[in-house]
Amino acid sequence: MPELIHVNVDKEIDARGSFCPGPLMELIRGMKTLPVGGVIAVLSSDPGSARDIPAWVQKAKHEFIGAFPEQGYTRFVARKTH
Amino acid sequence: MPQRILIVGGGVGGTITANMLARALHPDEAEITLIDASGQHVYMPGWLYLPFNRSSGSSLVRPERSLLNRRVRLVTGMVTRIDTQNHELMVECNKDQQEILGTGGATKATYAYDYLVLATGSRLAPEDLPGLSEGMDRWHDFYSLQGALRLRRALQTFSGGRIVIAIGGIPYRCPPAPLEFVFLLEDWLHQRGIRERTEIQYLYPLPRVFPIESVAEIVTPLLEERQIGYTVFFNAAEVDTAKQVIRSLEGEEMSYDLLVMIPPHRGARVIEDSGLGDEQGWLPTDHHTLEVKGQQGIYAIGDATDLPVSKSGSAAHFEAKVVAARLIAAVRAEEPDPQKALYDGEVMCFLETGYNRATQLVFNYEQPPRPPIPSHYYHVEKQLFNRAYWYIVPRGLV
């Protein structure tokens, strides 16, 4: 299990319980207003996020830092690279 | 002394809250004032049908006064500043609104509150997507009355080519609407006999055509069956209206003959100007109590919030009931009833799939929707709801 110890998160979005528009949309929205180099975390309880979020981060050529399981949800962390 | 409750915004959320408070609270308990910039109540879901001549603009607007309980005082004016330190709002009005504002000739007034409800909605912000502001008359939308009417004129003279439908920013109002538009457009082109000369391309930001997987599973085969092209992972980055090309953050581009954009959205200007919102002007809102975070006695409803639920009249409708229940309890210094006074993320909406069929989405924070197979039944239900809206929804009867 990856550990989130050395990464400072600049912005955290609580998208737990979000089906529409959903955690990925919250991440894309948050990423847009984040400065380049900033780190964003999205909390999601939707199992689909494990596939959707890394896929979008890779497609948009940002850096996926990791998915960190918590009690009943997962924290997804990514860095804006451009 | 009655408590002063100010509600900003005469959309579905503000109107229901005002009416529910007026019915429940005695004049000795509370004085209820609703402030709205236009004094007109607009049924925005009807704009979807305007480009296809399936509704008329005038049927989608009514005076706000006609929908309000007579105990609610209506002020027509623009809130320009929210001063949470002093519990006051600054309101400005046009010269022709002076009488309505009741300020005896002044065009500015200050209103004090004990409780405040911010139902200030969202606004279109084309300036947030490079290229849109520069070529305002060279793209279309159905997210405003004016835009939907102009799109209707453009479609009347359209004889074939490529129509692109794209999302200009996130979040946007009513997530199903772009997909509904695509289905209604395909149906309409077919009826006009120009479907074979028209290519439809739907560009969507997510890895599938709709945020919710169970819904995407139903609608994707319909798009394929009707030969509607779609590209996923397309987050609009720029529009070149001179070359008629749209480009994505992910590095793709597509040319078009007619572009229908869902323009970027932001929260109301007054929220940004008063320093209450996030970078896009959405109010940080508690997911369950709907209180604005760090602001006791101030509640947010509908599009104005940063809640992870769809920006829709339906969400505002359910949220308004929660805020009304909390305010009634607060005015009476009672504990709010947890059954009524906590929002569970409830949303209920329809999704038109063309050819007089539709499906329905019902969900909350805990339960994802399980949409039924599109049928004529849900299409009729949506049409009936669109007409019954004026009689049952703003009054808070359902």
In brief:
Chain A is of the alpha+beta class and 82 residues long. Helices cover 27% and strands 30% of the residues of chain A. The longest helix of chain A is centred in the middle third of the chain and has 11 residues, at 23-33.
Would you give an account of this structure?
The complex is a heterodimer of chains A (82) and B (398). By secondary structure, chain A is of the alpha+beta class. Helix content of chain A is 27%, strand content 30%. Chain A has a domain at 21-66. Chain A has a four-stranded mixed sheet with strand order 1-2-4-3, with helices on one face. In chain A, a hairpin with a 2-residue loop joins strand 3 and strand 4 (73-79). The relative contact order of chain A is 0.27. Chain B has 398 residues and is α/β, with parallel strands linked by helices. Chain B has two domains: 3-121 and 268-331, FAD/NAD(P)-binding domain, CATH 3.50.50; 126-264, FAD/NAD(P)-binding domain (3-Layer(bba) Sandwich). In chain B, a hairpin with a 4-residue loop joins strand 6 and strand 7 (88-92). The A-B interface holds A 13-26, 28-29, 32-33, 48, 51-52, 55-56, 59-61 and B 169-171, 175, 205-207, 211-213, 233, 235, 249-251, 278-280, 287, 308-310, 345, 347, 361, 363-366, 368-369.
